[in-house]
Amino acid sequence: MSQDQVSRDRGSTLVSGIGELVTNDPSLGAGVLGVVPDGAVVVADGRVAWVGAASAAPDADRRIDLGGRAVLPGFVDSHSHLVFAGDRAGEFEARMSGTPYDGGGIASTVQATREASDDDLRARLRTLVAEMRAQGTTTVEIKSGYGLTVEQEARALRLAGEVTVETTFLGAHVVPPEYAGRTEDYLALVTGPMLAACAPYARWIDVFCEPASPHAFDGAASRAVLEAGRDAGLGLRVHANQLSAGPGVQLAVELGAASADHCTHLSPADVDALTGGATVVTLLPGVEFSTRSPYPDARRLLDAGVTVALASDCNPGSCFTSSIPFCIALAVREMGMTPAEAAWAATAGGAAALRRTDIGHLGVGARADLLVLDAPSHRHLAYRPGIPLARPLVLPPASAPRRIGT
Ligand code: NIG
Ligand code: FE
Asked: What's the predicted TM-score (pTM) here?
């Protein structure tokens, strides 16, 4: 539910008939999910005005009965790359026959993206956002990173800003072909004129810190990018430890990044550094599925007390899915997460990774981003893989949202 849509929708609405209400607020209900059986929510002015047991619900201007369905906070997809043109289905096919992923295919998306018109990129972006929304995602973070020139990166962020406030400058995705063998020169561009042109359109900066990839950036280069972004007022995120146990996690923790993403290969020292810290680990199991790689060990992180988020990483290369329910099913089946932990990670975890307190839960005052399941419980997200159970709750009158996650 977008803020614009709700605020046009005057008056209060009582949503009842909620068989299982996941609030993510332990003061409101059972467990870490704050589950209220037979719950109700009152929405007014785009916010949660009241939440609790249906038997105690106040009256409202309008009523909706969900017939026993489960309601959760909308999914918060805190990691995606949606501004691109072209297609890499051939690369995927080769991977399924054993070709490893090393980020080299990013260059072909860069070429296709540079050649695309604004309207083409906008149409593709909006199609993907609509695809996400139809599956229950109500907030999405979107990175640049397929332009890799000053103008192209700024364009990508301008377009991303049309559909979300959670925009991330990823000029340091890979070294583009015209800078081959001149990484230092490209870094000077990224941390200088490109950052200056992109910072007005970005909330975050990110870097593909991966010494194991010949295309990405080592620890020193990643540090330079992140420090420059921080000095420009951007929050920090890191593609860390995706292909090897490199320096990304330690850097993210040291610099106070909001999130270290991927974290597929972690040393004991990495887990120690993350424990008790403010850096969320965002796991992206669609990547391991789509690159035929070993999954990260979520259990190890959760048992150490690390805050874990789940996100899609939707992009044309390493993972072309926009489905958070699919990622939840993978996290439960392959990564040792319970259904409750996975539901929390895809909602409250995503909000924590974006340092947002107004989303990811359904306490009073939260944004009225409600997700309905055509099922009685959050468990069905993993129990019924591949079934389109999740959708956003649209309060009447329904109208197309302009932004997702405003
Ligand atoms: O998060 N690893 C770096 N970036 C993306 C993949 C981008 C691509 O392959 O096009 C990721 O996996
Ligand atoms: Fe990514």
From this structure: 0.95
